[in-house]
Amino acid sequence: MAAERQSTLRQRLFAILVAGIGATAASAASFAMAVYDAANPEPIAAIDAGVQIDTGKWNVMLREAYLSPAPPTGIQPPTPTTFLTVEFDLENRSAASAYASTKLFTLDPPVEALPDFYLERDLWVAGPLNPGMRERMIATWELPAGQTPPHELSVMVGSQIYKRRDNLYGASGWFDREPAARVTLPVAARNESIAP
Amino acid sequence: MTTIEASPRGRRAYWLSLAVLVVALPAAMYVHSDGGVVDLIQETQAPLEVQRGEAQTYSGAEWRLTALTRLPGELPETEFVLAEFEAAVSDPAQFQAAMPCQVRLTDGEGRRWAPAFLVERVIRAARPDVSEKPRCLNFAEARTGDTIAMAESFVVPKEAKDLTLSLSLKGEQPESLLFD
Amino acid sequence: MTGAIRTIVAVLAAAAALYAMQRTTPVYSEITSPVRTNGQQGKRVETRNFAIGIAKVHLARSIDAPKSGRPHSYTTSGVWVIVEAAVQATNESLSLTAAEWLGPDGTRYSMSQRLSTLPGTPGTEQLEPGVPRPMLMIFEVPESQLSGATLLVSQSAYTPLSEEAAVAMTEVQTDDIRPVITIKRGGGTLPWVLEAE
């Protein structure tokens, strides 16, 4: 009886040791990989305008960028404002209607304001985009007074990943990830009064 | 299992833990409900019934239903119900803290109507005096001794019978007044 | 020897049970998903809080309707689905604000926000118990999603465990797609008027 008990104890000790070493090795390897990935980021693909980018939730194709004195609705703001405008095609790849995210594009040079999205069909503020129904969209950024409009715009297109269960609630959803591509666009002036 | 069977102390602890669960589980549910259990109990409380025309002290004021008028509705087979009531303020602080009030019209079958919106035009045409009265939302200016006349309007089907007005203010006991 | 076998079997059984539980755990959106009441087009569907009946479904390539006061032609790459329904609150005043076209392949198309300000569309009025009201729901869907779809109507798209009517759209005339349907503001009991070309 006593001998059996002793051997069980030794076995347990051994099992705990093995499990401990295994867990330590796994977390060390995971940490090392994370550090390595952070130190060696994958270069972001430079993609031409007019080429479709699969970002996960969306198919995006940037077309052109220009400066405009008014938003696409044509409603002139009370004070003279410059709208940095980007036209693009957007297709919802997910299984439900969804609004375009304001985090879809990151601009360089940076603009503080969040973009407004317009639907080209209506020249009106865009609602949710339906799955599989490609739409021509217009994004505008209101440039703050005094900011010199850029000649060239670099647009980082964000990517998204679908998680069936997120880490917090176990809810399904799309989550933003690192940029999928970088597109450089020349910035034209649509109105003669505004020079880039 | 072996340890429980082995020592009487372990067995006692086991049964004690089970007994504690009887108290601990409801306590945990109560705490996690975040006031929901209290609300549930309050909802089951009977409202305070008040006869038509009589006043009742409730939440820093004397409440009185002055009129419950049925008018022809805009839609076929419907009627407008105008509920006019007043509050004589005795404790302005308590009165204001409980605003806005939740007013519902209830019929004999237990159906409940919320105040209708976008009906000002109709009321102005039918009863201009009532359209002047404010809704029971916010009376920041209320002073002790003020009597505030209010009105709410409802859209109900013609067949609705035995209408009563219920008035509920935040955080008050009982949950609501019921004007017959 | 039998002890070892028994241990192995127990471990395998536990692993299988854990795996099965992990696979079948409902996700958050399933736990909080609306409480569905199933029904069929042309029949009255009663949930606990409201009743709905689908009267007519019209299909169009384009919709003419006012846009901030001026006439506008709403085009689409798919087909416009215009659903005329009758709705009624059961016991308490409420608003129906969410409608979805659930395609035969499970894709969800929300009610079009492009025409959401038209009179009679979900969210524009409060429904009263005992007072049936007409409701207009407009969707924009690809042609392949027309037949075999389900219409989902609920008080809110975001409230957990809200009541939802799921109406099987069995009688959609997919061969009758009008080029243009004009939606005008109606008078009297019907808040809108449809005119097909």
List the helices and strands and how they pair.
The complex is a heterotrimer of chains A (196), B (180) and C (197).
Chain A: H1 2-39, E1 45-46, E2 53-54, E3 58-68, E4 82-92, E5 105-108, E6 116-119, E7 124-125, E8 135-143, E9 152-163, E10 173-189
Parallel strand pairs in A: 1-10, 3-10
Antiparallel strand pairs in A: 2-3, 3-4, 4-8, 5-9, 6-7, 6-8, 9-10
Chain B: H1 2-6, H2 8-32, H3 36-44, E1 48-50, E2 55-58, E3 61-72, E4 78-89, H4 92-97, E5 102-106, E6 112-113, H5 120-126, H6 128-131, E7 147-157, E8 164-168, E9 176-179
Parallel strand pairs in B: 1-9
Antiparallel strand pairs in B: 2-3, 3-4, 4-7, 5-6, 5-8, 8-9
Chain C: H1 2-24, H2 28-31, E1 35-40, E2 44-46, E3 50-67, E4 70-89, E5 98-102, E6 108-110, E7 133-141, E8 149-154, E9 163-169, E10 177-185, E11 192-196
Parallel strand pairs in C: 1-9, 3-10
Antiparallel strand pairs in C: 2-3, 3-4, 4-7, 5-6, 5-8, 8-9, 10-11
Describe the fold and architecture.
Chain A has one helix and ten strands. Chain A has 196 residues and is an alpha+beta fold. In chain A, strands 1, 2, 3, 4, 5, 6, 7, 8, 9 and 10 form a ten-stranded mixed sheet that branches. The N and C termini of chain A lie far apart (90 Å). Mean pLDDT of chain A is 89; it is low at 192-196. Chain B folds into two domains: 8-41; 47-179, Immunoglobulin-like, CATH 2.60.40.1240. The N and C termini of chain B lie far apart (64 Å). In chain C, the strands form two sheets. In chain C, strands 2, 3, 4, 7, 10 and 11 form a six-stranded mixed sheet that branches. The B-C interface holds B 75-78, 110-114, 116-118, 154-157, 159-160 and C 91-93, 125-126, 128-131, 189.
**Using DSSP, what is the number of strands of chain C?**
11
Low-confidence stretches of chain C: none
What is the CATH third-level topology name of the largest domain in chain B?
Immunoglobulin-like
Shape designation of chain B: elongated
**CATH architecture annotation of the largest domain in chain B:** Sandwich
In the CATH hierarchy, the architecture of chain C is Sandwich
N-to-C SSE string of chain B, H for helix and E for strand? HHHEEEEHEEHHEEE
Question: What count of helical segments of chain B does DSSP give?
Answer: 6
Reading off the top of the CATH hierarchy, the class of chain C is best stated as: Mainly Beta
The first-level CATH class name of the largest domain in chain B: Mainly Beta
Strand content of chain C: over 45%
Structural class of chain B: alpha+beta
Round the Cα radius of gyration of chain B to an integer and report it: 25 Å
Gross geometry of chain C: elongated
Mean pLDDT figure of chain C:
92
What's the number of helices of chain C?
Answer: 2
